[in-house]
Specification:
8-stranded parallel β-sheet, alpha/beta, single chain, globular, 10 helices
């Protein structure tokens, strides 16, 4: 990876801490690091959104949080309530888990109801829908999940929570990009989970640029969800 490409990749990172026992001090350090290096956003638990928003005020770094996470099994009302509170606290981006077990069971109305609730509650923020692609049986299912997410109003589709045995893969990202390419509006892609090296990042960047052009490699349309990738890119 060239230094120029590494600098671009850094600007696309959602620097993440979703550890179960994350602390205030760790969030402060995360925010300081994101501001220092100019990442696209931080991604934190909902209870850290307000703290992150204060820490990053005026820096241009976005505040992302997760809902219906990581199992995808919450009810729409609960998802809407947490989403609304997060936006009120300063979240600029909401990463919601598609209810993938309901999707696999064929319960499309439930999937759409939950995602549309998140879409309404996240008004004023970007909505990223996590497909949890490692739990889906193959590219066709990934593509169908991506289509449902976009139908429900997703601004981005995201591969994974990082909490499942299989996280992001180039094959899943390719299926998602093909759906995005066929969509009549702009939708972003966020590979997330297990992306730790500059070489892995370069593979996803080349894949996205090959399908949608170099201009797609912008924070408005492409992100990496990662906690340790930044170290490799800085190196």
């Amino acid at each position: 990876m060239t230094p120029e490409l590494a600098r671009l990749a850094i600007s696309l990172v959602d620097l993440t801490n979703l550890d179960d026992r994350c602390t205030d001090e760790q969030v402060d350090a995360l925010c300081a690091r994101a501001a220092e290096h100019g990442t696209a956003a931080v991604c934190v638990w909902p209870d850290f959104v307000r703290r992150s928003a204060v820490a990053l005020a005026g820096t241009g770094v976005g505040i992302a949080t997760v809902v219906n996470f990581p199992t995808g099994d919450e009810r729409p009302y609960a998802v809407g309530a947490v989403t609304g509170c997060a936006v009120d606290d300063g979240a600029t981006e909401i990463d919601v888990v598609l209810p993938y077990r309901a999707f696999l069971a064929g319960d499309t109305p439930w999937v759409l109801a939950l995602l549309r609730t998140a879409r309404v509650a996240s008004a004023g923020a970007h909505l990223k829908v996590i497909l949890e692609t490692g739990e889906l049986p193959g590219p066709a299912a990934v593509a169908e999940a991506a289509r449902l997410a976009i139908e429900a109003g997703a601004d981005f589709v995201k591969t994974s929570t990082g909490k499942s045995p299989v996280s992001a893969t180039p094959e899943a990202a390719a299926a998602m990009l093909d759906v995005i390419a066929d969509t009549d509006r702009t939708v972003g892609l966020k590979p997330s989970g297990g992306i730790r090296t500059a070489e892995q990042a370069a593979e996803y960047l080349a894949l996205a640029a090959g399908k949608l052009g170099d201009d797609y490699l912008s924070p408005a349309t492409f992100r990496f969800g990662a906690s340790s990738l930044l170290d490799s890119l800085l190196a």
